[in-house]
Amino acid sequence: MAEPSTARSLKRSSSPRKAATVEGDIDTSYLETLTGYNARRAALTIISVFLERMAQYELRPVDFSVLSLIAHNPGITSRQLCGALDILPPNLVGMLRVLETRGVIEKREHPTDRRAQGLHLSAAGKKLYTKAQRTASQLELDTLSDLSPQERETLHSLLRRVYRPTRGPAASDQTM
Amino acid sequence: MAEPSTARSLKRSSSPRKAATVEGDIDTSYLETLTGYNARRAALTIISVFLERMAQYELRPVDFSVLSLIAHNPGITSRQLCGALDILPPNLVGMLRVLETRGVIEKREHPTDRRAQGLHLSAAGKKLYTKAQRTASQLELDTLSDLSPQERETLHSLLRRVYRPTRGPAASDQTM
DNA sequence: TATTGTTATACTCTATAACTATA
DNA sequence: TATAGTTATAGAGTATAACAATA
């Protein structure tokens, strides 16, 4: 058993960008030409705020993602969660067990496949997720307050095109 | 001692987006409204390619970032690296030791502070970094081939505004 | 034979406390 | 007293191999 208890610590300092030593003197211009560097820095910045505000629900980003997909896809299976969130099956087991122990989710028998199990939010889980989603949406507004709604949409669109390559029209692998 | 050897494994599967099970059936639309989610997914996608292509140099993303900052900021100190890259000092020690053992970097005495030490690339380090940077820049072109140069610049600009909040004009904390 | 969920486990990443030498 | 670099170590995150039950 890998999980010590139901409630996890969730602590993390997250270092809110303190310019203790000099930092403006350092030339980071080349790294800033790399999308991976910029995307990772941006993600970590937002995640640090996410951790703070979601601590009240004892939800890490991955827990919230799992609940969100279950909420919007009732009956989703463990494997489907893994595929959608890029989590390895062994690493999901413990998370689901904790969420089930907390009474947030329920495992029901799959309608057609007796190996699988459909995942659902409990009544308490729905209440928790509703509050958590509101917090997440508010966090989005707060951390991206420097960007206009249109800039935010542009950012999301561009990011999606990075991690979910355009399989759309004008593709190169068409049969004729 | 935390490092087992000079050369590290660098192995990682990185799962190149295989749609093994269904995945298009899963509704991820809410998560995709969250910048943190999108930024993290994009970063992980690029980093997985980065890991593959940088394996020949035995450099992880963090190693490359360290070398890049030393290359462009000769004499930079350990603390400055930590500040610029958001790495905790204890976690940098091992990386620098490995790079020094590999003959890639050199530690020299700091000109004014005898506690600190200036970091520099060795001749071999400069050759290695030059090749690595070329690989990184090519990777940027390849992984972002769906985006025009202008879209790429827009993406970088927006990401920087997320992780490095605009401290510029029209700020709210002015004295008058 | 392949897939779902699972256990056990190893490895990597990230964080804290505490020490020394110097400022 | 505070800071730079370091050690030791704990905790969280990510990976592989292998198994039973079912498809």
Automatic annotation (TrEMBL), chains A, B:
SUPFAM superfamilies: Winged helix' DNA-binding domain (SSF46785). InterPro entries: HTH_MarR-typ, MarR/SlyA-like, WH-like_DNA-bd_sf, WH_DNA-bd_sf. Residues 1-21 are annotated as: Disordered. Residues 27-164 form the HTH marR-type domain. This is MarR family winged helix-turn-helix transcriptional regulator. It comes from Hydrogenophaga atypica.
